[in-house]
UniProtKB/TrEMBL annotation:
It comes from Actinobacteria bacterium BACL2 MAG-120820-bin50. Gene3D superfamilies: 3.40.50.450. One of its GO terms (biological process) is cytokinin biosynthetic process. This is Cytokinin riboside 5'-monophosphate phosphoribohydrolase. InterPro entries: LOG, LOG_fam. PANTHER family: LOG FAMILY PROTEIN YJL055W (PTHR31223:SF70).
Amino acid sequence: MKVAVYCASSTLVSKENLELGFELGASLAKLGHELVWGGGAISVMGEVAKGARKNGGITIGVIPERLMSVEFIDHDSSQMHVVKDMRERKGLIESLADGFIALPGGIGTLEELLEIWVGRYLGFHNKPIAILDPSGVYGSLRLALDDLTAMNFMKPGQHELVSWCSTIDNAIKHVTS
């Protein structure tokens, strides 16, 4: 299976998050899954790809032309798709992947996660989505989503379309089973 990973490109994230990315990539490869990701060679983006490749995995990057120097295109990728913009990037990642895992990240990661989540709810795809958050980075987000559900801003069933996971094994099982 091809698993898309949404994650941070910030070079300021903690070593713990870099290690999480590497271990997720390694675990995906060891289980025979291919990695689809944003194509960057820095931060968590780079580590997830390095972890996959170090364990014999295939990495499929998708990067917009404009970000090739910002996220530093991963020249070691098994395949690299250079696209014109973020909309094309997200669309291609969605079409390539069989499932999605979101790691802790910033607004870009959140935007990708929320878009794929809404797409599933609206029936544009039926691919599994997991949020891998072993250290509780998204705790406040989860509470906010619970509040939105309680106040009926989120419709019944929307919250359940995503699996919140605290371990790599659970996240991978959720998106590949």
